[in-house]
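Field reference: "sequence" (input) and "structure" (output). Example, DNA-binding response regulator:
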Amino acid sequence: MAPDPTRTLLLVDDDDTLRERLARALTKRGYTVITAGSVAAGISAARANPPRFAVCDLRLGDGNGLDVVEAVREANPDARIVMLTGYGNIATAVAAVKAGALDYLAKPADADDIVAALEASGGERPEPPERPMSADRVRWEHINRIYELCDRNVSETARRLNMHRRTLQRILAKHSPR
């Protein structure tokens, strides 16, 4: 399917590999994709060429993706926006929706899930995920999120999670569960 100039999509993610892979997949699905790797570049792109659709990562190297969502919403109030994150929780999902995002997807989300969220009509309820995260994976994501919020301080993270420091170190040393 050839890209449609009326279906402009701003894709903001600081992971170069993921951003380029998603850009190719979304271009194949008929979107004209503009990419950005930072909050500053995303805001600039949104203001220069207000997109009809946007897909934005929540945590970017230079700030919060919610700032990009607000800039897209200011540039085009009718834009359909989806947030992506590897650090999903209820508080950030609520903040994303309040900022103007339609949906909130956990990474790794594939292009079909993203397109389904972008194209869903307002009254439709999204289908449950085909492969939801396991309970072990949700726990691991939560622990890593707190660890990142504590600036990778193991002792502080262990204190906040009410967990022994050595136990936390063992969990952090393992690969993420599926």
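The CA atoms of residues 106 and 132 lie 10 Å apart.
The chain has two domains: 4-119, 135-173.
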